[in-house]
């Protein structure tokens, strides 16, 4: 076994939006689109968590989803993330209706195109920052060659490469969330879905995470962030509000 490869010098890797054949900035078709989406949970009694939601999200959008508890935000995020399917209506990714895809194809779309970030950082406690990021690819089935370099590149991209060998317990909340974002970015997703990503952060860490989100959106990443945080919503380029499963977009 040779020595570990050195980290790449230079600026963080920026993945151009067009690298994998997705539309470039300025092209005006949505990355993802919901048309008349309803989601009814078949519980007793049934819950209509989403009702007739229409939403088109474009490359480089930074979209905040706000609304009261139980209004359908996570349900919407799960559908956008191909973790769940609409009961009615359609969900199109790059113009293709997800309903027409097999389970395996949906899993492949998820691995290739979508990253997830949660309020709880969900880092493995006994793995270093770098290992936590690398493990994402293990499950995503990415190519083994260069995994370490890609993970380091992702840590650089979010500004925590200097903490690569730290265990999560030795990282601040803000640093842990950046590692979780690096992990989500590892497969070069087009779409990053975040559920209350600043819920466990103080206001200084929230501010700095918002700067990172803004930079990522400028690099062509499409960001959807569920939040209760006014600061987050104020920074986002678009804000949609869900109340009782119905969505309205703030114009401004
Ligand atoms: N698996 C499920 N089975 C039945 N009902 C569900 C299920 N998941 C969610 N619900 C219901 O659907 C509605 C929307 O839930 P959802 O988790 O999307 O809300 P939310 O906006 O994310 O809330 P919060 O801000 O508290 O996270 C709620 O009334 C909830 O009780
Ligand atoms: Mg939720």
Key words describing this protein structure:
single chain; 252 residues; alpha/beta; Rossmann fold; 6-stranded mixed beta sheet; disordered N terminus; binds adenosine-5'-triphosphate; binds magnesium ion
What is this structure's SSE topology?
Elements: E1 32-41, E2 47-57, E3 62-66, H1 73-80, E4 88-93, E5 96-97, H2 103-113, E6 114-118, H3 129-140, H4 147-157, H5 173-185, E7 191-195, H6 203-218, E8 222-226, H7 230-235, E9 238-243, E10 246-250
Parallel strand pairs: 3-8, 3-9, 6-7, 7-8
Antiparallel strand pairs: 1-2, 1-4, 4-5, 9-10
Helix pairs in contact: 3-4, 3-5, 4-5
This protein binds adenosine-5'-triphosphate and magnesium ion (MG).
Residues 41, 43, 47, 49, 67, 69-75 line the site of adenosine-5'-triphosphate.
Give a brief rundown of this model.
The protein contains seven helices and ten strands. With 252 residues, it is of the alpha/beta class.
> What CATH first level of the domain at 59-82 and 105-234 would be assigned?
Alpha Beta
Q: CATH homologous superfamily of the domain at 59-82 and 105-234 - what is it?
A: P-loop containing nucleotide triphosphate hydrolases
Using DSSP, what is the number of strands? 10
What would you call the structural class?
A: alpha/beta
Binned strand content? 15-25%
Query: What ranges have pLDDT less than 50 throughout 5 or more consecutive residues?
Result: 1-23
H and E string: EEEHEEHEHHHEHEHEE
Proportion of helical residues: 25-40%
Q: For the largest sheet, list the strands in their spatial order.
A: 6-7-8-3-9-10
- Dominant shape: globular
The number of helical segments is: 7
Instruction: Based on the coordinates given, report the CATH architecture of the domain at 59-82 and 105-234.
Output: 3-Layer(aba) Sandwich
